[in-house]
Amino acid sequence: MSGNQSRVQAISQIVNRKLMPAQPPKRLEDMWATDVFSLSKMQASLPKSIFKSVKNTVQTGQTLDPSVADVVAVAMKDWAISKGALYYAHVFYPLTNSTAEKHDGFISVQSDGSVISEFAGKLLVQGEPDGSSFPNGGIRSTAAARGYTAWDVTSPAYVMETDNGMTLCIPTVFISWTGEALDKKTPLLRSIAAMNKAATRVLKLLGNTEVAPVNSSCGAEQEYFLIDSNFANSRPDLLLAGRTLFGKPPAKGQQFDDHYFGAIPERVQVFMQEVEERMYRLGIPAKTRHNEVAPGQFEIAPFFEAANVASDHQQLTMTILRNTAKKHGFICLLHEKPFAGINGSGKHVNWSVGNATQGNLLDPGDTPHSNVQFLVFCGAVIRGVHKYGPLLRAVVATASNDHRLGANEAPPAIISVYLGSQLEDIFEQISKGGVKGSQGCGIMNLGVETLPTFVKDAGDRNRTSPFAFTGNRFEFRAVGSGQSVSGPLVAMNTILADSLDWVANKLESDLAKGTDLNAAIQTVLKEVMDEHGAVVFGGNGYSEEWHKMAEERGLANLRTTADALPVLKAGYIEDLFQKTGVLTPVELESRYDVYAEQYLLAIEVEAKLVGSMAKTIIYPAAVRYLSDLSSTIAGLKEIGIELEKVTAEKVATLVKSMMDTASKLSDALSKHDFASTEDHMQYASQTIRPLMDEVRQYADALEGEVADDLWPLPTYQEMLFVK
Ligand code: ADP
Ligand code: MG
């Protein structure tokens, strides 16, 4: 092992560390939602009429009766105080993928100097954080900083335990004084409403008399890395950028496929158990956990929930993973590509739509009636993904996800739909003018009363598709591990709303002309396939062949964030969001500005780090080694021994190349005059990034030459394999 002091110390601390004792297992019932101010807790503490009113809002999305707020606030405060909370916080989700909260005490000082705890309805319903520091993409000038948070009744309040004690947390939306959405929750709620409206129209046209509100569901599989903090703390790149900017791949990586689904290391098990307990207490239904493909990589997935709650819970999950990791001496990396040469981390967003009366509308089902619904809803998704594929690419576009998409481990940047062989066949038959049957399960015909059933899970899985049908839902696989799921959910709900409206318009006009329903549905589905069938692809998404084929089919291949983000400025995207009421043009533009800025900042921070690490960490190690070598060579020469100079020459050449490139990088970074944000992003992607990679190449080659005991950075081997 290494002789480098800090690395040796890190390793010895890890090897000698005492495991945090695993807590004795608790019963699920004793943990489940104990920290949530749930409907049942409200029922127990609120007068009947008030409870009914709140429940109505939660379950049907109806506007909250303002008169109930005071009563709910008092009950919520009493419950929170009984859990030990002294403070409350409006929690909101700015455009940064993070969670923000401003804490306020329940304390209220009376005129005689005594204090009481107080929480009025208006404080529950509305807050006013000074939001001027949150990115808003030009919606507000700093001087006009007023921003409001408003209670989202549909996502339950909870108490969050940290080292500072308990805080009552109230999920909220965050809007500007002029009413524009400054957050990720507002558009999500609007997209659910738009999808509900359009889906209800279609369901009624299909002959349903009773239609409950349609909601979208989300189950997000979260991948992450755990790295011992003794290592991470001596890697400025991991600390500041969340990924390694340098590092030679180890002799052993993931090529043995021996980590995936392998036995979970004991230390990680103890960590996971604590994560799950904290999730259960917050009412988050953690369901699966396993080792992922790369060494040091793991996954956690909850049981799916309504999209809005799932999105809040996903943010909490990321927070819990990060905070709990610290307690266990790890850092949890949610970066999409922390280590070069081994798999990165994604977040598969499983998504469907459904309601209480018709069930899951993307379930092929086993009654004829719901099959028609399924085909219509599935067809609407196909149309949406084709028409708005570039939008789906844009909502997963970040500097960090660029390392992952298209890199033969994650889906390509081309957005296509995988249906599985059976559905693919059915939709192909539709495009040929009528469904005759379905592979493996008898005769199939689109007659409303006579549709036969088809077997679920008939399709295989396809890991290479960015947007895959998986039995009763779609799985959007291109989402980055550190991303909020809101953006992808907003995009999916909105494009579905648009498609369902289009379907409803077609059906209405055909029915008005006297066409029968069955024929009208056939026509609509055929049109979907004629116009949009090109997006359906069941082959290998990683192959070169697909890249060519996709181009012929006219599918966009937006390789980088610099290519993808400008889609948000396109007229048809603006129209989409405006007509569905999800984002105004100003709100959409602000998102473009914020995400472009984040992209540029991320690359700038990394580029500066590359320069400083090359100069202050790697260069000194390399010249120390050179100095050792040269004095040894000179000393040996004095006693008549010739030592080869090849290594010294090689190291010297690499050092020079690295430093030359680092200085080119630093020059390149000083350019600031760009005609447009698009130009600036292209410059970051085409000039800065390649220079960073080049510096790294020389540095990684040096890591393979310099004496191990002089190498200052924890190596890939150590970070990934020392447990
Ligand atoms: P896999 O790795 O095989 O894709 P997982 O069990 O890890 O499967 O994750 C699947 C995710 O999909 C889970 O979060 C699950 O709850 C979710 N899911 C299942 N059905 C639906 C649905 N109808 N809508 C949304 N998500 C769903
Ligand atoms: Mg999956």
What labels describe this entry?
723 residues, 18 strands, 13% strand, globular, binds adenosine-5'-diphosphate, binds magnesium ion
Describe the overall structure.
- The protein is globular.
- Helix content is 46%, strand content 13%.
- The model is unreliable at 441-445 and 447-459 (pLDDT under 50).
- It is α+β, with helices and mostly antiparallel strands and 723 residues long.
- The structure holds adenosine-5'-diphosphate (ADP) and magnesium ion.
- The site of adenosine-5'-diphosphate (ADP) has 15 residues, from strand 9, strand 11 and strand 14.
- Adenosine-5'-diphosphate binds next to strand 9, strand 11 and strand 14.
* Classification by helices and strands: alpha+beta
Give the overall silhouette: globular
Number of helices: 23
Summarize the biggest pleated sheet: 10 strands, mixed
Radius of gyration: 28 Å
Low-confidence stretches: 441-445, 447-459
Proportion of residues in extended strands:
5-15%
Helix content: 40-55%
Please provide the count of β strands: 18
How far is the N terminus from the C terminus? 14 Å
Q: What are the bound molecules?
A: adenosine-5'-diphosphate, magnesium ion
Mean pLDDT: 90
